[in-house]
Each structure stands twice: as structure tokens, then as C-alpha cells.
User: Which sequence fits this backbone?
């Protein structure tokens, strides 16, 4: 399957991160975002456990948009909602 | 950021095999190291165009040619033009020599970067981007702290930090736990790093693990159940 090149944006490719550091890195990256900003998460499987963790820890603070769903790569745009 | 593969991960592999392995793992970049089994080199630069076409058909881009021998700069420049990729000047020569070679390649019309590594990476990088050249940083976790080092490189080199080669990703990722790869990756993301991160083995003794990893799809665990927040420190600024 042809993989489309990424646009020039904040991209967090967690495939190179040791497993136990992945979720901490993702959450710290999210917390460092300005409200209204986002990053693209790249992973080699559907990050559903991560989404559940976001819903538990950052309910109503984030937006989750799938940009690509396999078979080799999953891309999700995770945005920090702007403050009301 | 584009994740890719160095031909050093499978030094006997043909170009076809490298492209297939990269595509199978969802890697969109391929760095060709001089002397590996792909046989792309200065001896026959005209095959480079066919190489680029074959890789592109699988969604893989040749993002660099790592020159480790003292080949003629003009021939390397020609190879780089045909590949549509920068020549990454590496090898045992000192930084001033590598910078001179890269300047010569650039003056012959091709894109060039210079490899830096180890404890002198930040200092050497200054000598590189001071000549208007791009920086190719070789990361060996354990030899330097990747997180603070990448912060200093991004601060100094800015967009001239274009190539990063990570020793020990892929099937060796577990061995890098606690060595700062999470922090490095987070800092690259927040900086909007648009260059490449190329995976390569730390040692030939892991060749079987890499061969297996390249031959299959899928991950090696998301780590959600065993996450350890204390292993990552993105919040500490670099002075």
C-alpha cells in the first residue's frame, strides 16, 4: 500500500519509542501543546487503549481524528481544544 | 518527521528487498549506505534513476546516500542528483575534512549534509551549519543523552538538522528503554521537525532480529499496560 508523505506539521512517531515510554511521551507532548494546537500521532497499530486513557484523563479537552487506519500505519490527529 | 530504514539494517539485501521491507513496515524513507548489497554507488551512477523509480512505486523515497569512502566529490554529486537525495558525508575523517568534502559536493551542484555523532555532535554541528550545510546526526543512545542533545541541535541548527539516524530502534527498541528516546521524539514533534529519522542496528549481532522484524508487519507491543511515566521528561527546558 502506498503511504502518503506527511505534511509539515508536528508529528509524533511512537514506533521508535520503547514501549513503556510511549504513553508518557504522548501525554507529555499533548500537555505541552498550546490550546487549539495539535499533533499527528503515528503508530503501527490502532491506539485504542490510548484513546481510552485520553477519555479518562482529559475528558472534553481533546479531539481525536483518524487520518489513516492501517494496515501498516495508523495516523491520528490529536488536538488540544481551545479554551472557551 | 519521516521514519525510514538504513540499508545497514540488512547489508546483504538487494534494493528490491530493502524497498519491500520498508514498505511492509510502513517506513517511507530509505537511506542507502555506500558499499551495501543494493549496489548503488559511484561505480555506476546511472542506475540511480531506476532505483528512485522502483522505490517510489512502493511509496518509499530515497532520502540520503551515506558516503563513507573518499570518492570523488564530482561523482558523488552526480549520484546525488540522479537519486534526488543528499549525499551524507560520513567516514573516519575529521570534521574539517568532511565539511570540505561536503562543500565540494555542494559546489558541484548536489545537496550535501555532514554526519556528526557522539559527545562532539553539538560542537561539530556548529561547524557544519556554519558553512551553510545540513546536519546528519547519528544517535547512539547511551553515548549521549538524546533528549537534551536534540534540543541543543534544534536550537543551533534549526531547519538545517535534516537527517537523524537512530541506532537501535526497530527490534532493539526495548533495549533503549530509559535512554531518552521518548524525550527526543517528543522534542522533535513539538519543534515540528520535518526531516528523517532512519533506523539502523547498533551491532551486527542483532542481524537475525532485524531480519525477522523486517520480514513481518505489526508492532512489538503498545506498552499501555506497563507504561512508566518517570522514564520520560519533556518538561525540563534546556538552558
Assistant:
Amino acid at each position: 500500500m502506498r503511504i502518503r508523505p506527511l505534511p509539515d506539521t508536528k508529528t509524533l512517531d511512537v514506533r521508535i519509542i520503547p514501549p513503556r515510554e510511549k504513553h508518557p511521551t504522548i501525554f507529555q507532548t499533548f500537555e505541552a501543546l498550546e490550546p487549539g494546537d495539535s499533533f499527528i500521532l503515528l503508530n503501527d497499530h490502532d491506539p485504542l487503549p490510548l484513546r481510552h486513557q485520553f477519555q479518562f484523563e482529559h475528558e472534553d479537552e481533546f479531539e481525536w481524528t483518524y487520518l489513516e487506519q492501517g494496515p501498516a500505519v495508523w495516523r491520528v490527529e490529536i488536538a488540544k481544544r481551545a479554551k472557551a | 518527521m519521516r521514519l525510514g530504514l538504513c540499508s545497514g539494517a540488512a547489508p546483504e539485501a538487494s534494493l528490491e528487498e530493502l524497498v519491500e521491507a520498508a514498505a511492509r513496515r510502513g517506513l517511507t524513507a530509505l537511506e542507502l549506505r555506500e558499499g551495501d548489497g543494493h549496489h548503488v554507488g559511484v561505480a555506476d551512477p546511472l542506475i540511480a534513476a531506476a532505483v528512485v523509480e522502483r522505490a517510489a512505486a512502493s511509496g518509499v523515497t530515497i532520502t540520503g546516500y551515506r558516503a563513507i569512502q573518499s570518492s570523488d566529490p564530482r561523482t558523488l554529486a552526480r549520484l546525488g542528483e540522479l537519486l534526488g537525495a543528499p549525499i551524507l558525508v560520513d567516514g573516519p575523517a575529521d570534521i574539517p575534512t568532511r565539511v570540505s568534502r561536503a562543500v565540494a559536493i555542494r559546489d558541484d551542484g548536489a545537496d550535501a549534509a555532514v554526519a556528526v555523532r557522539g559527545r562532539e555532535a553539538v560542537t561539530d554541528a556548529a561547524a557544519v551549519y556554519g558553512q551553510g550545510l545540513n546536519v546528519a546526526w547519528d544517535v547512539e543512545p547511551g553515548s549521549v543523552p538524546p533528549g537534551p542533545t536534540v534540543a541543543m541541535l534544534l536550537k543551533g541548527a534549526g531547519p538545517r538538522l535534516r537527517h537523524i539516524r537512530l541506532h537501535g530502534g526497530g527490534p532493539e527498541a526495548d533495549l533503549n528503554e530509559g535512554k531518552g528516546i521518548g524525550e527526543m521524539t517528543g522534542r522533535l514533534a513539538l519543534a515540528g521537525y520535518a526531516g528523517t529519522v532512519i533506523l539502523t542496528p547498533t551491532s551486527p549481532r542483532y542481524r537475525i532480529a532485524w531480519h525477522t522484524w523486517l520480514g513481518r508487519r505489526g508492532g512489538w507491543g503498545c506498552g499501555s499496560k506497563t507504561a512508566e511515566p518517570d522514564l520520560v521528561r519533556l518538561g525540563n527546558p534546556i538552558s
